[in-house]
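QA checklist item 7 of 12: single-chain prediction sanity check.
[x] sequence parsed
[x] length recorded as 540
[x] structure emitted
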Amino acid sequence: MATASPEPRRRVADVIACALKSAGVRMLFGVPGGGSNLDVIAAAGAAGLPFVLTATETAGAIAALAQAEVTGRPGACLTTLGPGAASVVNGVACAYLDRAPLVVFTDSHPASSTEFEHQQLDHSALFRPVTKSSERLTPDNAAQALTRALHKAVSARPGPVHLDCPGDVASASAGAPGATLIGWVEHTVTPEARSDLAALLKSAHKPLLLVGLGARRTGDAAAIRAFCERRSVPAMVTYKAKGVVPDEHPWFAGVFTNASIERPVVDESDLLIGVGLDPVELIPRPWTWSQPIVHCGGWRADDCHVPFALQILTGVCGGLDEIDACLPPARWDQARVGALVDDQRKNILVRADGLTAQRVVEIAGRKLAPSAARVTVDAGAHMFPATMLWPVLEPNQMLISNGLSTMGFALPAAIGAALVDRDNPVVALTGDGGLLMCAAELLTAVREKLRIITIVFSDRSLSLIEIKQQARQLPACGVALGAIDWPALAGSFGVPAWAASTEDELDRAIDRAAAEPGPSLIEAKIDRSNYGATWRAVRG
């Protein structure tokens, strides 16, 4: 008589892979160690989640973060214990302040061993300030801990979560899942809040939407565009909300950062409406606007910096419906709004004798934006023309670190984005200082055969810091990088590369790069003499 085959042993690593797959994770990134990482990578591969080796742990987290922003699902990365965990913190902090759902797995010494000091760090204490939660997996709690972590990563204000997996846990048999009750907070607008909203809106004839990172979902973007068109109301967007209202939309009013360049538009408004606006994106300078500001979005925004008079927490679509119901007709002149946006763009087009960052963005944007899946932007002086001049039509077509504003973001983010869409190129706009921090990721792009066009704004300086030294009348110190032969460096990784000192050379280099089936690099040799004037035009 035949006997039934025993059920296959379900390991903790299998539980991890299954939970990630069910949550919509596409792949794992990072640098593995020799403990639980190996079991997790093997189980993930068997479940159809490939592992992508990056040169650094930080790059792995940023690539996963970029995938989270592109797909709307959590990203995932892993590191070894000790130095790996310490190295990934910058990428995790980026996800925390840029509000991206990310699951971070760290290896640790076996749970049965407590006497080892070698490479021993308190991972929970390390990650607690930059994550929404930190838990240590055991065979018995693995299923519930993963459910809790994935829920926390995507619910309310999204962000990273940390799971520590001891070396002897991933290969152990998982306990029964048990029941995990996850509660959802349902926000409703009270009669009192609705009355307060009506009072704020009743005399508003020039309301202005300030759209932030909390309004990037497809449905939210559609609702915002429809609201602007139906009510004849302009909208400004933050860096991370670029594309929610396209640059070419008739009610697009420019980029909002709490700087000087947007003041002419904001000054004409009599009510500010923050839509998914998170103050983490704004320049840390005093809020000087006198008109009231209300907020609608999926989570409560910190009101220490921005003095929100009222917050409507029914989500973007629900909040706009509430506002729509009691907003009087607007008196904005569409042509006037367009003229103010044109003025912003003209103000940032500061000339110089040589090739400027502005012209690089204009030329590259004209030639590459129509076919590129996305553009990623690093922190640095080049980000001012990039965010103002590169045309963006949809949410998350421009990926940028704004909450943390970390250097070394653009290339790893481009890797994460390019792995989602292999058919169209991704353009990475980076300074030479930022690329020096992650140049080894060019090899990652080669290994994965990704169509990434990296444009290096090569000015041999940490220019944004140099500008700040100049503004304080301090001597330039500690900002000179020196000469780098970027084509030679890229070539050593097998990346075709060209240098351009003129607009004609840049034009030809872009054509060559666009024809490449894999990664390519263009060194744009920048005349940085106009950076100070550009800074003043934007920030004041």
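[x] summary fact logged: The chain has three domains: 12-166, 191-340, 352-539.
[ ] second reviewer sign-off
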